[in-house]
């Protein structure tokens, strides 16, 4: 054994010892997902090192892959090349035969969100992020919900919630009402707070829903600020009508949720949002694309040259609606989310659209509730809080469903789970790349290993899992977040407060050329008729 190999072995042993010591010390271990899980005394890092060398893996970026070493110092990738030689005092990880890739970025989460009369979703910024890290996601973008319509109050509330973060995060901000104050606050969000996207809910009538007038005002403002307009696309008025219809028919269980909001309502709202964005000439991002109907509207718009981004979420890609008909209420209720998980066939069509570039990146819409919270709707599906888990499962399920099936390449995998999100939200190549100078958010995935999902072993606080029992190939064996090894040997070592807020600048690549198409539009307008007042 040469001296480098010996060094690798001893460093690995040290790492394992440090990790198991952390696991056996109750004040220092990753706290159990359901007990005393919070922001104190939980997960003090023992396994991190400021210098890490990842040896001999296949380093994958969105446009290139090569066998190389990756050297990390103080949270930053310093070098990516074959045969990097290093001195002592460095943690060495052997990645031979494995893929070294940028940590996942989840563009769509709801941690610690007050929603549908429920105090908050079950995962906060610590437990949700711990789950994310165990699944290979190292950054997420959550949605700030305004407080009483105020973006500032909402932002401040989320700043507080996120103090316990164990990984990097950013924010989108929802717009739920319109007046001059909101319009001014949008400017403050973009120019001072690091926000470059705003979300408009076209559903949830009476709670978050906005009308077309507000959409138009909001889209215009987004465009002027270089911020991306995002929509939850379902026709909320028609959903309200559909819900009444189901109740009148005596359908009160979870299946009523799916029946009350069919895919046509998602298609209609997606088409409407796309046309209004085209009218304003601003880019549009459609969140949680769940149906063929919505996907086809996006495909059509993109084909015509419109800048529309489509985000499927893991639940829509890999599940069908059969669970909603389960005879056990808790089992059925766990699948309730909006737009609903669709009948078999939509899932495969969304996968195909993702592999062909019609849809661009995968989120989770992680919005977890436990069975007690879900049981609020035991007599009426309208009261079941909408939302499912996924932040921990996304990287594994996308690998297994898309790469193992041969639908996409490993580089495509990096693009749809990380790089594209970084580009859209204008933080590439700081995030979404294994390049010298990028943040050291890295995963090592073993394609020959396998995973199994269960609520008994997951790290989310929720007591159910919509992917219960699912097995597949490809396992994230190591997660490095901000230069710290946080997941190795199936052990998590996470530190509350170690995650950083990532400011996202406006005017991403999606805004390139908007001024030119505006000018073309103006010059294309037929000249107004010259009219003369009659002298009679
Ligand atoms: O059911 C869902 N999707 N819950 C989260 C809120 C939203 O619509 O994104
Ligand atoms: Zn939504
Ligand atoms: Zn959502």
UniProtKB/TrEMBL annotation:
Decide whether keyword Transmembrane helix is in the record: no
Q: Which organism is it from?
A: Punica granatum
PANTHER family to which the protein is assigned, alphabetical: COLLAPSIN RESPONSE MEDIATOR PROTEIN, HYDRANTOINASE/DIHYDROPYRIMIDINASE FAMILY MEMBER
Q: Which cofactor does it need?
A: Zn(2+)
One cellular component GO annotation, for this chain's record? Answer: cytosol
Q: What lineage, starting at the top, does this entry show?
A: Eukaryota, Viridiplantae, Streptophyta, Embryophyta, Tracheophyta
Q: Which SUPFAM superfamilies match?
A: Composite domain of metallo-dependent hydrolases, Metallo-dependent hydrolases
- Any one GO MF annotation of this record: dihydropyrimidinase activity
Q: What is this protein called?
A: dihydropyrimidinase
Per the database record, which ranges form the Amidohydrolase-related domain? 99-486
The UniProt record lists the EC number as 3.5.2.2
Q: Which family does it belong to?
A: Belongs to the metallo-dependent hydrolases superfamily. Hydantoinase/dihydropyrimidinase family.
